[in-house]
Amino acid sequence: MKKNIHIYLLAFVIILFSCRPEALKVKTSFDILDISFNRGTSGITSVFVDSTKIIRVYIKDYDKQNSYYQDTLKDGDIIKLNRLSNKALTDKIDTLVGGPSCFSFPFYLIITNKDTTLKTLVYQDIDYSFKPLDSLTNTIILLTKTIKRYPLDTNFVFNSFKKVLGPPPPIYGMEKFVPPVIKED
C-alpha cells in the first residue's frame, strides 16, 4: 500500500512540474539597434544592442580614459526597447533632421529588423530636441547608467560612431598666430 502511495505521489509531482508553463522569453523585435551621441567637448557615447540582448557601450571621453563595457539586458528593458524601436521604425523619419551649428549635439541611429532599416542623423541643440526619438534616446542613456559594466573587446565596431565624430577639441596653448598674406599689385 505504501509503495502505491509513493508511486502516485511521484507521478503527481512529475505531472505537476511538467505541465507548468515556462517563463516567457522575450525576444527582440529588432536585429540591431546602434546609436551614438556626441556630447560636445566631453566626448561621445555609443550603444549597440542586438538580438542576443547584449548591450555594448563605448564611452569616448576627451578628458579621461575611454570605457568599453557590456551586459545582458533584462526582459523589461527589452520590452521597452521593442516598443520604442517599433515606433521609430513605423514613423516616417527623415535620414537627416536639423543641421549642424555651434550648439548642436548630433546623434546617429541605426535600427534594423528583418523588414526595415532606419538610419537617421539628428542634430539637437539647447532649444531643440527631436520629439519622435526622445523616449528611445532617453531610455538608452538611462540603460547605460544602470547596467553592470563587464569588460568589452575594444575591437568591437560601432557603425554609428563615425557619423557623430566631429573635430577633436582644441589643445590649449598650441595655437599659433599666422599673419595674413597681403599681395601687392
Poorly predicted tracts of residues = none
User: Mind describing the biggest β-sheet?
Assistant: 8 strands, mixed
Q: Spell out the helices and strands N to C.
A: HEEEEHEEEHEH
How many runs of DSSP E, i.e. beta strands?
8
> Order of strands in the sheet with the most strands?
5-7-6-1-2-3-4-8
Average residue-wise pLDDT: 79
Mind telling me the C-alpha Rg? 25 Å
User: Strand portion, in percent?
Assistant: 25-35%
Structural class: alpha+beta
Per DSSP, the total helix count is 4
Using the alpha-carbon principal axes, give the shape. Answer: elongated
Distance between the termini: 121 Å
Please bin the fraction of helical residues: 25-40%
Descriptive terms for the model:
single chain; 185 residues; alpha+beta; 8-stranded mixed sheet; 4 helices; 8 strands; 29% helix; elongated
What can you see in these coordinates?
By secondary structure, the chain is α+β, with helices and mostly antiparallel strands. The chain has helices spanning 2-18, 75-90, 131-146, 161-164; strands at residues 32-38, 43-50, 54-61, 67-72, 96-97, 105-112, 117-124, 150-151. The chain has an eight-stranded mixed β-sheet with strand order 5-7-6-1-2-3-4-8. Strand 3 and strand 4 form a beta hairpin. Helix 2 runs antiparallel to helix 3 (131-146). The chain starts with a helix and ends in a 21-residue tail after the last helix. The mean pLDDT is 79.
